[in-house]
Amino acid sequence: xxxxxxxxxxxxxxxxxxxxxxxxxxxxxxxxxxxxxxxxxxxxxxxxxxxxxxxxxxxxxxxxxxxxxxxxxxxxxxxxxxxxxxxxxxxxxxxxxxxxxxxxxxxxxxxxxxxxxxxxxxxxxxxxxxxxxxxxxxxxxxxxxxxxxxxxxxxxxxxxxxxxxxxxxxxxxxxxxxxxxxxxxxxxxxxxxxxxxxxxxxxxxxxxxxxxxxxxxxxxxxxxxxxxxxxxxxxxxxxxxxxxxxxxxxxxxxxxxxxxxxxxxxxxxxxxxxxxxxxxxxxxxxxxxxxxxxxxxxxxxxxxxxxxxxxxxxxxxxxxxxxxxxxxxxxxxxxxxxxxxxxxxxxxxxxxxxxxxxxxxxxxxxxxxxxxxxxxxxxxxxxxxxxxxxxxxxxxxxxxxxxxx
Length: 405
Fold this sequence. Notes:
The chain is an alpha/beta fold. The protein is about 40% helix and about 15% strand. The chain contains 15 helices and 14 strands. The protein has helices spanning about 10-20, 35-45, 55-70, 80-95, 125-130, 145-155, 170, 195-205, 225-230, 260-265, 280-285, 320-330, 345-355, 360-375, 390-395; strands spanning about 10, 25-30, 45-50, 70-75, 100-105, 135, 165-170, 175, 210-215, 235, 250-255, 270-275, 295-300, 315. The strands form three sheets. It has a six-stranded parallel beta sheet, sandwiched between helices. Helix 3 (about 55-70) runs parallel beside helix 4 (about 80-95). The protein starts with 7 loop residues before the first strand and ends in a 9-residue tail after the last helix.
């Protein structure tokens, strides 16, 4: 007699699929509306981190994704679980962090009926759509693997944003007989050859090149030091990119773009290479950054490449593809002479100028932050809230490894 086909619920199959995508940790609170998911978690190798509030689930997932560089997952119940988690999801959206929020929603037959079902909301997707890359509902179990593939396509192939997938209670309990496959990711977006060659030429001929890095450059961490050293280019970072060049490096000007001297320093460059930054107010603490020469801009978001800065060379590409390509092009080129007063000498002058701008409160904070730095290993991770000492630490605290501040 033939063996019966093994079946599981949609919720259990979804957890098994997440595990195949490499998810090792899920943050959340179990509830009556997510029992199907938690039965799957109990059978999986995924670690579940219990939080006390769904906002904690979304912020914990956000932090885990930032520190690990991998997508992270929060599981929440219908209605209040979604509204509680919205703040953390909004933060992930603002900072381009790949967080997947999986929520339940009431049974398909009851949606939009207003019959007072438990945790009923008029429209969860309307709430989450403005703070996610996309928000979607699985109308049946068969749609779940496609939605998850779409989420991962956004996480890996575009500017990463959080995603919300909601699954009705009756769909979570649907029987699934097959094993859902992992879809291949879209791979790194490569820079187009012509603008890449133009970028290499500009950097080759620059006498005072400067590199400005944002959070979108994190995946190019391995090549950044070599590129800076080859060009003898100072490196400024936003807070999201602290440590991409160890701040003990003689070419590291740190995350000083929030200080007047740091912005002025960027304006002294005759070629500014900006990788993975919006150059927004929250990066600069100013309306704009001065551009004294040509600008090369690397970004996955085409809107950033057509904004007010109007870069001479826009490169629509992953930093992890563009930076190695630029480095390879320069290694094969005959570099022109650099300004002898540029490079490490200019960085040392900039560090002194930045220190001169510290307020009395920043000097007091520096004592605490210095003790913290001395007590932590280089790979120790500091999580900050937006208090005054954290604002000071954005500039003062020396970071040696990316994803650790």
